[in-house]
Design brief:
Trna Endonuclease, Chain: A, domain 1, alpha/beta
Length: 357
Amino acid sequence: MKTKEFLESKDDLTISNENKDQLPNGYTTEDYNLLINNISILWVNAKEKAITAVNTELLEANWQTGKYIVEYEQKGKVRAEYGKQLLVNLAKDLTIKNGRGFSRSNLLYMRKFYLSFPKSETVSHILTWSHYFEILKCDDPLEMQFYVKQCINEGWKVRELKRQMKSCLFQRLALSADKEGVLTLANEGYQVMKPQDIMRDPFVLEFTGLPQKKKCRENELESAIKTNMEHFLLELGRGFAFIGRQYPIRIGSRLFKVDMVFYHCILKCYVLIDLKRAEVKHSDIGQMNLYLNYFQTEMCQPDDNPPIGIVLGARKDELLMEYALHGITNQLFAAKYQLYLPKREELQAQLDAILGI
């Protein structure tokens, strides 16, 4: 817990009844509570520093272990063939001498840790060994760089990192860019600068638990997303704040409802999402355009940017969407969702074609 958060959580701290009459003369309850707060904050900060120090030393030890293994393998050669038997023997002997933590799998990743980050100063101590252990499962250096940068930028926990890697986030984002854009994505992470940057096609909604072969109703999909809102926000990306579901819009005597409304704190605008269980139709585009015009006129404040609309369906006809969206001045997009994790091999093959590999 951060110091500021700790202070806020202790604002209502009061001295226990049995100690009220035991305060020295001249000291008030407020003085005593301040003493408790000061000592408590001291220990919170000390524990945070201790955790940071332990993590730094652990990363350094893992990196150095990998370096020792690689240097032993090379024996002065520029390149050396990786010897699997060496790690088997090391795992047994180091475990006997030092205890747990030296399995062949761990040693394999320590070795890869050093080879992937040969300069120790490029290792971020913001991340834990558990983060790096997952990131090192990538074979592509660009993908590794991306997930390191993204973990730092968005403060992902290991569980969140695992989900994004399984959903092939790097490949999905990279496929919408050219070669230079892919390199920028890997080196700088995912930057949200304009409305197009929040789009992912497809959006992966495997966390809903809905069977992919069954035609679910729109309200079922919406309810599943609402139940798993934390996962949905992770899929949408940084900056989204949930406003409401089935958000009512009254125009004259008619009542309309937007499936989901968010506010994007970075782009400073409303984001409206309409869910379609089947293919996105041209009429869905017209309806979303109506919603955007309403929000622009009735809901947006002077310092808000124009709202963004996303019609999210299981399928979309690219040519039909091209004609349906032509001439619309609002920030309106049609995208697909899928209820299962994408096939990594297929996405990687498309990405390799962009990179010319």
